[in-house]
Amino acid sequence: MSAPQQAGSTLERAAEEAGGRAAAYLAGLQAEDGHWCAELTADTTLESDYVLFQLWLYPPKNGKWAPETRPLVDKAVRSILDRQLPDGGFHIYAGGPSEVSASVKAYAALKLGGAPADGPGMARLRRRILELGGIQAANSYVKINLSLFDLFPRRYCPSIPPEMALLPFDLRYQIASWARAIVVPLSIVHAANPRRPVPEGFTLDEIWLPGASPAFRKDDAWLTWRNAFLAVDGILKWWERHGSGTLRRKAMKRAGEWMIERLPHSEGLGAIYPPMMYAVMALDVLGYAESDPVRAEALRQFNRLMVDDGRRFFFQPCFSPVWDTAIAAYALQEGDPGNPAVRRAADWLMAREIRRKGDWSVKRPRTEPSGWAFEYVNEFYPDIDDTAMVLLALSQSAHAEPCRKRALDWTLAMQSRDGGWAAFDADNNWQFLSKAPFADHNAMLDPTCADITGRVLEALAAHGVDRNHPAVRRGTEWLVRNQEADGSWYGRWGVAYIYGTCFALRGLAAAGESDREAHILRAGEWLRCIQNADGGWGESCASYDNGAFVPAPSTPSQTAWAILGLVAGGDAGSLSVRHGIEFLVDTQRPEGSWEEWLATGTGFPKVFYLNYHLYKDYFPLLALAAFVKARNRTD
Predict the structure, then answer these.
(1) CA 57 to CA 89: how far, in whole Å?
(2) Distance in angstroms between the alpha carbons of the first and the last residue of the chain
(3) Other C-beta atoms within 10 Å of 341: how many?
(4) Which residues are catalytic?
(5) Residues 179-192: pLDDT tens digits?
(6) Which of 16, 86, 148, 599 is most buried, most CB within 10 Å of its CB?
(7) pTM value surpassing 0.90
(8) Computed from CA positions of residues 218, 140, 260, 383, in that sequence, does the dihedral angle turn out positive or negative?
(9) Between β-strands 608-612 and 601-604, what pairing exists: parallel, antiparallel or unpaired?
């Protein structure tokens, strides 16, 4: 055997052994009932919002604020302060710069929570906020939240009219499901103009930048969607002062009914932090007593997102059991066939198939319900990405056949007209809505994207739906059409171009696309040319701000995505792939896990990022398994 062949065999053995350790470690994390659910962490904005939410729940008495949850508020304050940056501000992803909205939220929460206003930390934070443009530069949701307490002028906040529930074409279903779940309860709260009290003498005047206007900025061009929406906002503000009270009450009632209908069969509205918080506020506005079972359950579900284990205090934005279980099971299935953990996971997943019509059915009324949500229970909101991942996890489970058939039919029905797949809805792509004043959280729409389209193609192929099927042809064409000029694909739900490129390539390979096609070759070359010197791959969340790849220190998850993409594109033997495998082998801990501190998950690009605490373990396992299989086929 020649020296290169011996080296290759040695690396393959090392990869196989590392995969065995990773599989054993991952299987050991499985819960007794068959599922996985790792922590899901973000930035300080959730803890900051929690403090302001306590001010809503427990208003000051005689000008003094002494909430029942004071010990928890104190923990939130410490948790926020522990993450303050040297320049005084707060970032939205590890390693990132100070961001104005997160910093304004933190300042309000810290001051409310009793952090000394004249202390060095608060002084640095004030200075940094003013350098970033002051409170005027914060996004609309920060301003709306503060306006509920008269801490920001309502006239400079976007109007969120509950009357949208009365429109004949129901505008709510043209915005993303998560935005819909936020906007409906928030419209109820906003319409009530609650003006909740604050502690005596409390203001945020000191973080207003002198001379900066708080008014909405208009486009220079006269006829633009933004300027049109600002004109509509002016009309809505007139309506708030002079419009029909009867119509507004009817709209609030309709919005309340919509919200309350979605509280059962879920763990809080939308099962994610912001709408769960706003739902409690909306119930208060609608007159629900604290002891009312609906209101009590809504608050209980919100509080379940809290992690307070004596060492740490933070909030998770939601729970990720279906996502974690599906990826972990699939990785084990590929890396350790026959592992009993896979069967247990399959049984757990099958029991959570959604058989109830949800918001998705507004555009697909004749489709039989199926699919999976991201969370434990969220029956109004199954999503296409989780469903595709579950289909991959169940692809070798013969006893799951009826369940798989329904899910395949549902997934095919959720293809958008442009040929791609989005997260929760089909054809959620009215781009002009992203110009609305309250759309600056960059999450107004749910358009088709490369990462989900690729994963769906992979799932379809795993169940025998090949390139001769019209849906597969259209999905493949969508991916080819939406490739970036540099050869990469934009990743919507993971950071960022590495993620998109990985799953686009896997989808194209599963759909039978030749690895000699120019778009496949260009993608592979792009992945190889961005590799770090240590053999791994890393990408910053700043890629979203720049609209192009921004390098970062290597991470296990992003290295795994790059390897998975290259192997899918026909490259399992280049030096790039070998060095990537060596990186994973060399950085693996003795127990079989890896370490990762950078955010590689995306909530809302440019606004909110996530650390999935199992990404660092199941994606490397999947990459090692893919490499070993590919090399075995080559040999």
Answers:
(1) 27
(2) 13
(3) 20
(4) 385
(5) 999 999 999 999 99
(6) 599
(7) yes
(8) positive
(9) antiparallel
